């Protein structure tokens, strides 16, 4: 049990570095017509989410199909109520879709048991919330250790300290949330999401409660994480922030309205452009 | 060279690295075990921290349990204390004792008038024909008036016995001497008096060898019995013992209804002894098979057993009644746990979103309830202990020891109450939907 888990983890690690290298060589050897060889991390097929409020049915997601590969940097945009948070919650295995299929690392998530979902939440996904969601009266270090504890990972203290180091808060390890600024709190939350070395980091409006300067600081952390090979998906209302990502998915009324490369994404991509990043899916809708 | 071939044979089957390979799983297993305990220890710690953060509330919550356990411990200990006191008393008389007395099961006492039911012959027969009898003595019970100088005592307990009275009753003379076989033989007018009688007569040790008047007959005081104290509210030191022969002379009718007391050779022999005595008496009284006994045998050990039963019943019923308050305490714990789950819904949502399984949340909240209840139980045990010790200090109080099983019972019962009443709130927390919990306001 333990060994297979370890093997899985190391395979994930290998895959991540491999795809990172693949991507680099791919973009620079000019063979644009080639299919993207990176592994699919997330695959949504015709995902629907329907809430029932009393007798009324609320269609939060009406048929979303989306594929996200290793080491992508995706922004999800869209007007309020378009289903962004709903999508993120399903991505993060916090919620299950009403219908449709969600493959995470090739595993169909909809059929998993509660404890398997908990395991995925603890090991493969790092979630960053708009309002931080740190445990009050608990030090930053302890907050970061929380997922490590539930994942039963060894060397939790060192890992947590390393994660705090990465977000530049090593000196605030002993501070409690009420002794930290908003930006610092969000950085602790990011460290918490990072600590268990997840496959994806999901952030639902991580800068929504912060001023733009602090928001930029937070985004620099995400940039660094992306540069080190992390897959990141961010929900945001702000176009500036979306432009720092490479791909922008726009939702409208529970459907994907557009799925395009950002300016930065286009700049970093091959000169001919990438076929799978072309503004194709639901662009006309 | 005999050792040369042995050495490679020993080393060959274990190539280098085999042991380390065989034990390769060990560090992983230890790490997993460590993580497992760390995880649950963490759940326990989380629970403790939560309780500590709400100390005042925790105390108020557990007040019911504290009171419940305190009263249970106190009541149980008191019942046990009194019970042990009485049991010790009874044991002091010896558990190899029997008391035989004439008794008609058919409730026809009036028909027995003038009939010899039990006499000295019976007593002698039992004493000589049964080898399980170590000592035997008739006992004549009477009341008498006593005079000494100007002092007069009314209705004093008078017992007629043989010189065996001392060893049988384990009741010894402290001053002077007891009467001997010759005095019993002759029906001498001698007596031995209890400490309190001496006091009531306004006399001191000088009364030994002096004379007192019992029912206007002149008796020489041979000795003073040691102090026995009270037993079950009855003063045992207000007693005058005379030879039974003398007692029979004073009330001649008693020779036909002569009860007697037997000390069997050992506690193990008492069963057989009582059977033998029954056989001898039935034979002497000419009873046919099927006819009921015209006497009864009371055995100290039976009495002790009966008393033991009463003690257990009393302990159980009292503990049960007081234990109901523990249920009330448990409901208090459940109430506060439900509040706590509601208050911390968002926290539960967060824990779930970072990988807590249902059982982690369940364990955390269950631990909180159990710790609350157990701490209450521990405080209750300590208070009960204190009360019992303080009560024991009172001079006229029996020694009250808190039995260790009562402590165990109190602690495990309160922990059980914690589990019983904590499971519902904990379960409620565990099955919360992560997103609903996070969105809770
Ligand atoms: N628990 C729920 N019960 C019922 N309806 C819900 C629930 N959660 C979301 N919805 C509905 O689903 C739709 C999508 O909501 P969602 O929270 O995903 O929007 P959003 O894009 O995140 O909006 P915002 O930008 O304001 O955060 C909304 O119409 C909302 O009313
Ligand atoms: Mg939202």
> How many β strands of chain A by DSSP?
10
User: Based on DSSP secondary structure assignment, what is the total number of beta strands of chain B?
Assistant: 13
| CATH homolog superfamily of chain A | P-loop containing nucleotide triphosphate hydrolases
Spans of chain B of at least 5 consecutive residues whose pLDDT stays below 50 are 1-8
Query: How many domains comprise the coordinates of chain B?
Result: 2
Report the order of strands and helices of chain A.
HEEEHEEHEHHHEHEHEEH
- What average pLDDT do the residues of chain B reach? 84
**Series of H and E elements of chain B:** HHHHEHEEEHEHEHEEEEEHEHEHHHHH
Which secondary-structure class do the elements of chain B indicate? alpha+beta
Q: What's the overall geometry of chain A? A: globular
Percent of sequence in beta strands of chain A: 15-25%
- Give Rg of chain A in angstroms: 19 Å
CATH topology of chain A: Rossmann fold
Oligomer: heterodimer
Poorly predicted runs of 5 or more residues of chain A: 20-35, 271-285
CATH architecture of chain A: 3-Layer(aba) Sandwich
The major beta sheet of chain A can be summarized as: 6 strands, mixed
Q: What is the domain tally of chain A? A: 1
Can you describe what's shown?
The complex is a heterodimer of chains A (285) and B (441). Chain A has helices at residues 2-28, 84-91, 114-123, 140-150, 156-166, 182-195, 212-227, 239-244, 263-268, and strands spanning 40-53, 56-69, 73-77, 99-104, 107-108, 125-128, 200-204, 231-235, 247-252, 255-261. Chain A has 285 residues and is an alpha/beta fold. Chain A has a 6-stranded mixed β-sheet, with helices on both faces. Chain A has a 4-stranded antiparallel β-sheet with strand order 2-1-4-5, covered by helices on one side. In chain A, helix 4 packs parallel to helix 6 and helix 6 (182-195) runs parallel beside helix 7 (212-227). The model of chain A is unreliable at 20-35 and 271-285 (pLDDT under 50). Chain B has 2 domains: 17-90 and 308-439, no CATH class; 140-257, no CATH class. Helices cover 56% and strands 16% of the residues of chain B. Chain B contains 15 helices and 13 strands. Chain B has helices spanning 6-11, 18-22, 25-53, 55-92, 120-129, 165-169, 181-186, 195-200, 244-250, 270-284, 300-343, 345-353, 358-393, 404-430, 434-439, and strands at 97-102, 133-138, 140-148, 151-161, 173-176, 190-193, 211-214, 217-225, 230-231, 234-235, 239-243, 260-264, 295-299. In chain B, the strands form 3 sheets. Chain B has a 6-stranded mixed beta barrel. In chain B, strands 2-12-1-13 form a 4-stranded antiparallel β-sheet. The longest helix of chain B is centred in the C-terminal third of the chain and has 44 residues, at 300-343. The termini of chain B are far apart. Residues 1-8 of chain B have low confidence and may be disordered. The chains are: A alpha/beta (285), B alpha+beta (441). The A-B interface holds A 2-3, 6, 89, 92, 94-95, 114-115, 118-119, 121-123, 127, 129, 133, 135, 137, 146-147, 149-154, 156, 192, 196 and B 28-29, 31-32, 34-36, 38-39, 42, 49, 53, 346-347, 349-360, 433-435, 438. The structure holds adenosine-5'-triphosphate and magnesium ion. The site of adenosine-5'-triphosphate has 12 residues of chain A, from strand 1, strand 2 and helix 2.
């Amino acid at each position: 049990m333990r060994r297979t888990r370890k093997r899985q983890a190391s395979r994930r690690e290998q895959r991540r570095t491999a795809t990172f290298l693949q991507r680099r060589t791919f973009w620079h050897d000019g063979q644009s017509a080639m299919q993207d060889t990176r592994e699919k991390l997330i695959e949504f097929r015709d995902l629907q989410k329907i809430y029932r409020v009393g007798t009324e049915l609320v269609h939060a997601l009406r048929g979303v199909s989306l594929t996200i590969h290793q080491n992508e940097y995706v922004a999800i945009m869209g007007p309020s109520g378009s289903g962004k948070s709903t999508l993120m919650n399903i991505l993060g295995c916090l919620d299950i879709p009403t219908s449709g299929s969600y493959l995470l690392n090739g595993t169909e998530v909809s059929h998993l048991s509660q404890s398997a979902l908990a395991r995925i939440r603890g090991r493969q996904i790092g979630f960053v919330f708009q309002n931080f969601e740190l445990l009050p009266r608990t030090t930053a270090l302890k907050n970061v250790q929380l997922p490590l504890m539930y994942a039963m990972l060894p060397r939790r203290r060192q890992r947590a300290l390393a994660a705090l180091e990465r977000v530049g808060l090593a000196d605030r390890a002993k501070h409690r949330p009420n002794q930290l600024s908003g930006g610092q709190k969000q950085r602790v939350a990011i460290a918490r999401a990072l600590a268990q070395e997840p496959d994806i980091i999901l952030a639902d409006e991580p800068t929504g409660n912060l001023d733009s300067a602090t928001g930029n600081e937070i985004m620099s952390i995400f940039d660094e994480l992306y540069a080190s090979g992390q897959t990141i998906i961010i929900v945001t209302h702000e176009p500036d922030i979306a432009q720092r990502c490479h791909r922008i998915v726009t939702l409208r009324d529970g459907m994907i309205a557009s799925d395009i490369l950002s300016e930065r994404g286009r700049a970093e991509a091959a000169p001919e452009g990438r076929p799978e990043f072309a503004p194709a899916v639901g662009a006309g809708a | 060279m005999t050792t040369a071939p042995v050495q490679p044979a020993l080393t060959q089957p274990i190539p280098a690295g085999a042991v380390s390979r065989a034990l390769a799983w060990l560090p992983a297993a230890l790490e997993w075990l460590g993580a497992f305990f760390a995880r649950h220890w963490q759940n326990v710690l989380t629970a403790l921290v939560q309780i500590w953060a709400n100390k005042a509330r925790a105390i108020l919550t557990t007040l019911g349990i504290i009171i419940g356990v305190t009263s249970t411990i106190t009541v149980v200990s008191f019942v046990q204390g009194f019970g042990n006191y009485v049991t010790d008393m009874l044991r002091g008389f010896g558990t190899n004792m029997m008391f035989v007395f004439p008794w008609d099961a058919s409730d026809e006492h009036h028909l027995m008038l003038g009939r010899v039911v039990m006499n000295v012959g019976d007593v002698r027969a039992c004493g000589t024909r049964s080898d399980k009898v170590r000592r035997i003595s008739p006992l004549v019970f009477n009341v008498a008036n006593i005079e000494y100088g100007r002092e007069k005592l009314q209705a004093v307990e008078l017992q007629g016995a043989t010189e065996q009275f001392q060893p049988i009753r384990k009741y010894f003379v402290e001053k002077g001497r007891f009467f001997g076989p010759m005095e019993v033989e002759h029906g001498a007018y001698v007596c031995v008096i209890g400490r309190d009688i001496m006091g009531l007569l306004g006399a001191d040790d000088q009364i030994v060898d002096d004379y007192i008047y019992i029912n206007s007959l002149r008796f020489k005081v041979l000795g003073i019995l040691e102090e026995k104290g009270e037993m079950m509210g009855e003063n045992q030191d207000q007693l005058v013992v005379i030879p039974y022969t003398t007692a029979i002379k004073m009330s001649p009718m008693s020779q036909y209804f002569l009860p007697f007391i037997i000390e069997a050779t050992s506690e193990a022999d008492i069963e057989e002894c009582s059977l033998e005595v029954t056989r001898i008496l039935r034979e002497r009284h000419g009873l046919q098979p099927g006819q009921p006994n015209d006497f009864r045998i009371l055995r100290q050990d039976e009495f002790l057993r009966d008393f033991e039963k009463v003690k257990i019943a009393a302990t159980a019923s009292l503990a049960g009644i007081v234990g109901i308050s523990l249920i009330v305490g448990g409901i208090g714990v459940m109430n506060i746990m439900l509040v706590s789950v509601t208050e911390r819904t968002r926290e539960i949502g967060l824990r779930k979103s970072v990988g807590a399984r249902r059982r982690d949340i369940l364990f955390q909240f269950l631990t909180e309830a159990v710790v609350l209840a157990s701490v209450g139980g521990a405080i209750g045990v300590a208070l009960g202990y204190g009360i019992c010790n303080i009560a024991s200090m009172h001079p006229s109080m029996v020694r009250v020891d808190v039995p260790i099983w009562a402590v165990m019972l109190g602690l495990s019962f309160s922990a059980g109450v914690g589990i019983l009443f904590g499971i519902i709130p904990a379960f409620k927390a565990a099955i919360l939907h992560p997103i609903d919990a996070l969105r809770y306001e």
